[in-house]
Amino acid sequence: MNKVCADAAAAVHDITDGSSLAVGGFGLSGVPNVVIDALYDQGATGLSVVSNNCGVDGAGLGVLLAAHRIARVTGSYVGENKEFARQYLAGELEVELVPQGTLAERLRAGGCGIAAFYTPAGVGTQVADGGLPWRYGPDGAVALASPVKERRTFGDRTCVLEHGITTDFALVRAWRGDRDGNLVFRQAAANFNPPAAMAGRITVAEVEELVEPGELAPGQVHLPGVFVQRVVALTREQAAAKTIEKRTVRR
Question: Which of 33, 54, 194, 204 is deepest in the core (most CB within 10 A)?
Fold first, then answer.
């Protein structure tokens, strides 16, 4: 049951070209930076990534993006990454934009074995009607657009069908974790990390503080170890190396 890997490199050694990844984090909070950096060093390319956002320029998933290792992104927010926008508009990157709550539920549903679900989010927009540009051509024209989604009415509310998401791997970051893979997330890191971890066939969790089995009370655990296959224990320096997306100070 001991799921602790020797290091981050060992945890990502079998991620191959073209693999799909669910990656936790929100902005720069709860991003598995150590594992992402190990994947950068490992060299896998042509990756399909599912994440709320694709990091920022020079940090998080932005490191893989800048190296042209990512071929497709499913996410809900892309506003803090200029290289992301450049690649998308230049036709170098395929992008599926999903309402934020829908994305979280698609990951959770996939992890729970739910094939699809209906939601009112996106009704009356291109999310439901189709036509959102997924990929541009070199000439700037839309080369691939989103399809029309199936609709169904429940009472007086129209909903669209959304499919659950599963991926080959998931990369997440937790505040505390034990050797069995039970995880506790802290503050903003608790949003997309749990559903991302659920969606991966093989989930790699980097933890800021590794504890022994039994030290986490059952009521404290946010994600049970059944969803986690590999644990990477961070050093004190790695755990403390956190960046701030937008720093605001008083004059």
Answer: 204
What is the number of other CB atoms lying within 10 angstroms of the CB of residue 194? 22
Query: Strand 116-119 to strand 157-163: parallel, antiparallel, or no bridges (unpaired)?
Result: antiparallel
In the predicted model, residues of the chain with pLDDT beneath 50 are none
What the block records as the tokens of 233 is 């224990």
* 162 Rama sector, left if φ>0, alpha if ψ -120 to 50, beta otherwise: beta
CA-CA-CA-CA dihedral for 78, 84, 88, 91, to nearest 10: -170
Taking the C-alpha atoms of residue 53 and residue 99, their distance in angstroms, rounded to an integer, is 12
Residue 122 tokens read as: 């996106």
Could you tell me the pTM of the whole model?
Answer: 0.93
What is the token pair recorded at 193? 């990390």
Q: How far apart are CA 93 and CA 73, in angstroms?
A: 8
- Two tokens, residue 66: 């800048």
pLDDT at site 193: 96
